[in-house]
Amino acid sequence: METQLQKGKIGINTQNILPIIKRWLYSEKEIFIRELISNAFDAIEKLKRIMLNEEIYQSDQVDFFIEVKFDKEKGTLHFIDNGIGMTKEEVEKYIAQIAFSGAQEFAQKYLKDQSSVDIIGHFGLGFYSSFMVADKVEIHTRSYQLEAEPVYWVSDGSDEYFIGKGERINRGTEIILHLNDEAKNEFLDKITLQNLIRKYCDFLSIPIKLDGLQVNYQKPLWLKKPNEVSKEEYLSFYKYLYPLDSDPLFYIHLNTDYPFRLQGILYFPKLKHEMDLNQNYVKVFCKQIFVTDEAQEIIPKFLTALKGVLDLPELPLNVSRSYIQQDPEVKKIATHIVKKVADKLVEECKNNREYYEKIWKDIAPFVKYGMMEDSKFYENAKEALLFETIVEENLDNRKFKTIQEYLDHNKTKTDNKIYYATDLKTQGPAVRLLLKQGIEIIYLDKLIDAHFSSFLEMQEHNVHFVRVDAEISDHAIEKESKIIDSDSKTLKDRVEDIFRKALNNTKIIVRAEQLKTDEIPAMILLPETYRRVSELAVLYGEKDKFTIPEHHTLLLNLKNPLIQKLGKPDIILTEGQEIKPEKLELAKQIYHLTRISQALVSPEEMQNYAKEIFLFIEKRV
Ligand code: ADP
Which is the closest atom of ligand 1 to the Cα of 81? Predict the structure, then answer.
């Protein structure tokens, strides 16, 4: 056959550019598989489009397929399709000239600027990538056009090639790679080939056969219209992608034509813990062909927990990292995705509230983190922000409320403040006191909440968070007019006096009030600024080092029988005594117990307080 061949020369001046390209692409050699299969796929798609309009030569094949074969003895790898095929002129034009001139462009760019080496496909080098692994490449092709002659082309990757009449009977193309020794070892193996085909072409909507068996999954669900896909299909597609995962919490089907083309399905997985946020899962495709699963540029950092697929047909198929980073379209795509996720959250929160409340705890860390990362996301998604709210004395009965819902319900009693608790053990008395007044309490128990509440205060002028034990709501204190005990003014003075003397510490503010409950004798109030410090201490694992700031308030409840008894005037006093020493001792223990009951003690204080209380009891046994 070779005798009938014509010799051709590629019109490029750079001699052998292959070594340069080979060197650069060394690490990504396997992509030749992706390139050749995607060429085969394009050839089939082109033919399908033509078939819609024309009566054409169909030979015996109407079922489209791509086939990969290998021959270990001969060291060859074959890529066969029954697509559009090529005429002699087309081979000369598309393969010899365009593909090779793409290589030239690549080389020129490389020689000019060593740092800006983009990847091969950006220059239309797809077919040429086969020379990364092959010493010789043959093309056997036959165009779909009636009476088209089969064509044979062969090249060793230098600037010369041979072309002539071929022997292919059926419409379509077979590319034969004569692999070099290294590639023979690496690629001529069924499992390796199967894995590579699945890696890059699993969702190509044409069957790919290896050794006669179809190896790709084929069904690119994302290309269907959203209203034609059932919930079950979305879920089973997810299961196919991530077999070990439990069901996702929700999904978003993206389908955009303008200003860029983007199709995909993003799933929000059930996170195992907050730190899952740092993973990268979304697979990026270009026309059904896998490109990368490290799409940091396309998926903003805070959304990296999302899973699923994105198909960006306008991105050059084999874009390099540096290329993606520079592409202004990529920024737009990222913005679009963030907006879609925000819209979906708001939609679910408004229209599907019951379910949304169920998944809220799972998605809250990512939503909050995202809002702090990206203020646009905050603006778009803020209506979907829920807070777990304690609404009644049964502390376990909680509701999920938006900030607006909380304010609408509580603002008259709280002067627009938002009361929150971080720990029901230490803040229990304060929580109960507020609940008694019908004031609801937001429960913020996650590490992220310390930052997030400050963030919200900066974003919204009407949002002020106050920890339940930071200050006492005026609504929790009886108005003067309601005082029942006519002697209470002096009771207040006496109680405050006893405790001031007992504690003998000017840094502790002693304040006696008539609370609207008689249950609680005393409470420690902490300055609001302190909470940020203590919550950060928890964040950094130094919880034990923090007990209580020196400056704090001891609030005494004049409604409580114990405090009332303690404040009764002493009738018999020894000379020089203002208050009985026993009362001072008692007051001190009340203070200690109050701190213990709110867990506001360091381990050492705990020991000392316990010792003192035992001693105090011992004296009275
Ligand atoms: P690209 O695919 O980016 O255009 P390639 O170098 O991979 O660049 O291919 C060059 C051209 O050769 C293709 O555009 C197509 O016209 C033609 N071609 C390559 N492979 C096939 C094939 N299997 N069947 C038909 N035409 C093909």
Answer: 23
